[in-house]
Amino acid sequence: MAPNQVWAADITYVRTWQGWLYLAVVIDLFSRRVVGWAIAEHMRTELVLNALTMAFVARQPDAGLIHHSDRGSQYASHAHRQALDDNHAICSMSRKGDCWDNAVVESFFGTLKQELLYRGSWPTKQVATKAIGDYVERFYNTRRRHSSLGYLSQLEYELISARTAQAA
User: What is the dihedral of CA 111, 115, 31, 68, to 10 degrees?
Assistant: First the structure.
């Protein structure tokens, strides 16, 4: 497997004192790196489109990328399917009621909650949004070691893989 061949996406809830936030992520299954994410006060299609757009802009994958998600209305929407088509990506959806189909994203959400969200309280949506962004961009993708990657960070794994591919 190589980067940008299969992405997985999902949404989770984040409780703050001001009410709920919703976090959508897109994860590259090659390195477990979060390649796109968005936070909003709603779960409308716009939320997942913002995360998907971030991923496409940042990664610029070749045609044929497989994008996997659950069967939520946001992912089944015409706008989301059109965004995938416009970027020559293939839509893949979980079997009905089978959370194991998206285990990598569910695992990320569990890690985020254990390492960040459950360790504090979030008085404002703004504070929670900043903390999540910092966690994803400054810690999870760049410094957090992952057992399935030989205890390298997601960024280190991608860099080493790219150098190895160039040398071959």
Answer: 40
How many Å apart are CA 125 and CA 123, to the nearest integer? 7
Q: How far apart are CA 52 and CA 31, in angstroms?
A: 17
Q: Write out the DSSP string of 22-66.
A: EEEEEEETTTTEEEEEEEESS-SHHHHHHHHHHHHHHH-PPTT-E
pLDDT tens, residue by residue, 63-92: 999 999 988 899 999 999 999 999 999 999
State the DSSP code for 89.
Answer: P
The beta strand positions in the chain, using DSSP E, are 6-16, 19-28, 33-40, 66-69, 90-93
- Type and span of the H or E element at 126: helix 125-134
**156: CB partners within 8 A, 6+ apart:** 149
Query: pTM here?
Result: 0.94
Q: Residue 154, Cα to own-chain centre: how many angstroms?
A: 13
3-state secondary structure of 87: coil
Residues written for the chain: 168
Q: Are 132 and 24 in contact (CB under 8 A)?
A: no
Running DSSP on this structure, what letter comes out for residue 94? P
Amino acid at 109: F
